[in-house]
Design a protein that fits this description.
Elements (H helix, E strand, L loop, with lengths): L4 E3 L1 H9 L3 E4 L3 H6 E3 L4 E3 L5 H4 L9 E4 L4 H12 L5 E4 L2 H7 L4 E3 L18
Parallel strand pairs: 1-6, 2-4, 2-5, 5-6
Antiparallel strand pairs: 3-7
């Protein structure tokens, strides 16, 4: 099997502006605290993914995201195994999305570690 394609939040934002769909696979409790602030998204928690993956269109570019990128990577491979061709894992997920200052709904302060070197764009 081929390797999953991974893209950063900046590339994800560009693809979303061009019509891609974001699929957030975090659990509802996490999403209720802080959500991606984009219009073209689906919320399909990983715990429901096998039952609901058909809701994701095969004819669009699809970006899968979670908090840090590991759960979304599982979902990407699942979709690849089910015939999806243009599916991407958002590397570092919501954590990096929020650090970059991209649109969110809610309070992301609990997931952004400002003491870490990785909160500084020039570092990581």
């Amino acid at each position: 099997m081929e390797r999953a394609k991974e893209i950063c939040p900046t590339t994800s934002m560009g693809k979303l502006k061009e019509g891609a769909i974001l699929v957030d696979v975090r659990e509802l409790k996490e999403i209720n605290e802080v959500a991606f602030g984009v219009v073209n998204q689906l919320i399909i928690p990983l715990s429901e993914f096998e039952e609901r993956y058909q809701e994701i269109p095969k004819d669009k570019e699809v970006i899968i995201a979670c908090l840090g990128g590991s759960r979304s990577l599982k979902a990407v491979y699942y979709l690849m195994n089910h015939g999806y061709k243009t599916v991407y894992n958002m590397r570092e997920g919501m954590e990096k999305w929020a650090r970059k200052g991209f649109p969110i709904q809610g309070d992301a302060s609990h997931i952004i570690d400002t003491s870490s070197c990785c909160s500084n764009d020039g570092c990581c």
